[in-house]
Amino acid sequence: MDAADAAHTAFDPWSPEFVADPYPAYERLRATGRAHWYAPTRQWLIPHYEDVSALLRDRRLGRTYTHRFSHEEFGRPAPDPAHEPFHTLNDHGLLDLEGADHGRIRRLVSKAFTPRTVERLAPTVRRLAAGLVADLVAAGGGDLQAAVAEPLPVAVIAEMLGIPEEDEERARLRPWSADICGMYELNPSEETARRAVRASIEFSDYLRELIARRREDPGEDLISGLLGVTELTEQEMISTCVLLLNAGHEATVNTTVNGWWTLLRHGVRPDSDPGKLSTAVEELLRYDTPLQMFERWVLDDIELGGVVIPRGSEVALLFGSANRDPARFGPSADALDLNRADNPHITFGAGIHYCLGAPLARLELGAVFAELLRQAPGLRLVAEPVRKPGYVIRGFEELLVEV
């Protein structure tokens, strides 16, 4: 077995050992080429920072191909009709739109999702973070994920969307999101698809009813703001709201938990000074990337390192590998450096699909890390955490701590 074959064998996204620590496999991939065909998922793996960063901006690739080709023209089977509710929801959101529709919706949504909107949420975010951490401290500890990391971004998004606290569906936001996001894993099972379809229907139905309420009684929330944007269809509004929840909280949850696991494992703490804490949070986003892979379709032939990747192929941009590439981050790329100043990580993507919610995620992360450092300076691990089986969205089942 040569080095390239060994690298392909080491990349095993269904292996618990690989999911626990994919970084040695990434190092092998980077050492043996710029593009690797991976037969189990029929994708080209792209491990280098420079290539991942460039391809995120390359308009010869897209999150979808249907703005240019039919399924038949592109050589791909049409989606299973049984999965249609998931695809309707997913395909009308910014994450999977391309061309004129993407530009139109991003421009319109950006008007309601401005830095001023995020800054206006800052007191609410800090209050929620302080309260959740206080409850954890009062209990003497518990599951950091269930007690703090998960409730905070869900509560913030619910506040942004104007979901009333008395609505019983508020408690279903996290389960709905988890079920929908299951479809972003590699080769999802039929059971995963069924859960995603059910969640897509239930979540969409609830938002449709909430939109009708806001038409009758508008407020200061994002849904009310979007109602004034006449160029958006109702389905585009629904898909946008779901995307804000899914993308907006998955990064925060997993960066919080992965980040504290990293800190506890290394026996270090960030400086609580806001500027230094912000630098440390960026390093945690880089060091153990919450979204390990981002996929794109090849709309026109491309070439990487002498390898031609033809139209109709799918590339897997390995964010986790790119963020540990010594060619960009130097010989300390695999080291945790909470003072790393030069840190252009691509955790939030790049190009036209750069994460619209990145400022909100940074606000939430800064607030929750600041409160944990302030209220629980002696935070310590109770038990070795168990990772979830998913590789693309990589996190833990729980993180049990004492204070």
Report on this structure:
By secondary structure, this protein is α+β, with helices and mostly antiparallel strands. It has one domain (about 5-400): Cytochrome p450 (Orthogonal Bundle). Helix content is about 55%, strand content about 10%. The protein has 18 helices and ten strands. The strands form three sheets. A five-stranded mixed beta sheet has the order 1-2-8-5-3, with helices on both faces. The radius of gyration is 21 Å and the shape is globular. The protein starts with a helix and ends with a strand.
SSE blueprint and pairings:
Blueprint: H1 3-10, H2 16-20, H3 23-32, E1 36-38, E2 43-46, H4 49-57, E3 61-62, H5 71-74, H6 84-91, H7 99-112, H8 115-138, E4 141-143, H9 144-149, H10 151-161, H11 173-181, H12 190-216, H13 222-227, H14 234-266, H15 274-287, E5 293-298, E6 302-304, E7 307-309, E8 314-318, H16 319-322, H17 326-329, H18 358-375, E9 380-381, E10 400-402
Parallel strand pairs: 2-8
Antiparallel strand pairs: 1-2, 3-5, 4-10, 5-8, 6-7, 9-10
Helix pairs in contact: 1-3, 6-12, 6-14, 8-10, 8-18, 10-14, 11-12, 12-14, 14-18, 15-18
